[in-house]
Design brief:
With 353 residues, this protein is an alpha/beta fold. It contains 14 helices and 14 strands. The protein has 2 domains: 185 residues, Rossmann fold (3-Layer(aba) Sandwich); 139 residues, 3-Layer(aba) Sandwich (Rossmann fold).
């Protein structure tokens, strides 16, 4: 049975299901019991499981990450939450040099680090260059880590459950513009396998590969392109590492054209990896040079006026596809119809939020 839940509610439900299944699991981080309960994702957890299992931590990112790693080596699965990815940079040594490498350095004989780390990323509202970064390619670069970026509520629940019961550290990246997104979510312990992409909308003329919040923008673009007579196939990565190359490259071989959309800058990005791999593995099937659509190569602006032009939107995706096809498509109606920064076309999820 499925219900309509928000992305935040789906994360909350996944946490509840996991903690009920494993009585030793711990859930901790910054702001676990603050008034807003981390954008609503931790509502009711303290009350349900007590402060010995769900608790706030002092502002010491490296310290709390070390606690999570140590607890996991003693057999305790941990869900650790940081309200912003930017703050977690203080704990990269713990993540990269300890969590990611521990199992390998002991030849697989030591216990794996069973830690899932929730990091909130992406564009804020005037929060500027130190609170708006999308650094998923940093984490995906590190062997031993798994990295996921769900776009929809059902995937948020399913991937978090898979991450919590994985025998490896998992970085769970959630875009703050997704927390209020509604969608159908199955009840119970329903997991989405790590490393499986999803073809959200099939098509034949061009492949659009996206992740996280940019999949929502890409959905708007796909529906608008359809009205213009362009059949675009949308692939939502869901997992960044492992990455589902079979689905991505299969789509590119079918359509012969690729636009890779990322929430970060182009240099050493996930979009760059997708374009490079498609160019080397599908060169004989490509009908045009692949395109990347990313952020400009400088820090995020604080000014709302500047930020409005800084972040790619659906109309930018349409323009990139049109250029790839050698066509001119007027995107003014798409830009004018925008009612919210994170809405979804009505024939995908029913009802506004």
């Amino acid at each position: 049975m499925t219900r309509q839940l928000t992305y935040a509610q789906a994360i909350n439900e996944a946490t509840t299901v996991a903690m009920q299944a494993d009585p030793r699991m711990l859930c901790f981080g910054l702001g676990m019991d603050d008034p807003k309960r981390i954008f609503g994702t931790t509502i009711g957890l303290v009350e349900a499981f007590g402060r010995d299992r769900v608790f706030d931590m002092p502002t010491s990112e490296a310290g709390m990450t070390g606690i999570a790693i140590g607890a996991s080596l003693d057999g305790t699965r941990c869900l650790m939450t940081h309200q912003r990815l930017d703050f977690f940079l203080l704990a990269l040594d713990q993540l990269v040099n300890n969590a990611a490498k521990w199992h390998y350095m002991f030849g697989g004989q030591a216990a794996p680090v069973r830690v899932a780390i929730r990091l909130i990323l992406g564009r804020g509202w005037g929060q500027g260059p130190t609170h708006s970064q999308s650094l998923q390619s940093w984490f995906a670069h590190v062997p031993g880590l798994k990295v996921v970026m769900p776009a929809f509520p059902a995937d948020a629940k399913g991937l978090l459950l898979s991450g919590l019961f994985a025998d490896s550290p998992v970085v769970f990246l959630e875009h703050r513009w997704l927390h209020n997104l509604h969608g159908p979510v199955p009840e119970g312990d329903v997991r989405v396998p790590l490393g499986w992409a999803q073809v959200v909308s099939p098509g034949t003329d061009v492949t659009i590969v996206s992740m996280s919040y940019m999949t929502v923008e890409a959905l708007h673009a796909v529906h608008f392109l359809r009205q213009a007579g362009v059949s675009a196939e949308l692939v939502d990565l869901r997992s960044i590492r492992p990455l589902d190359w079979e689905t991505v490259l299969g789509s590119v071989r079918k359509t012969g054209r690729l636009v890779a959309v990322d929430t970060s800058q182009a240099m050493c990005s996930v979009a760059s990896e997708i374009v490079a791999t498609a160019a080397t593995q599908c060169f004989d099937r490509l009908q045009a040079a692949p395109r990347r659509l990313t952020l400009p190569d400088h820090p995020s602006p604080t000014s709302p006026a500047l930020a409005e032009r800084f972040y790619p939107r659906a109309e930018d995706i349409v323009t990139a596809v049109a250029d790839l096809l050698g066509r001119r498509i007027d995107v003014a109606p798409l830009a004018a119809a925008r009612t919210a920064p994170h809405d979804v076309p009505g024939d995908w999820f029913k009802g506004p939020f």
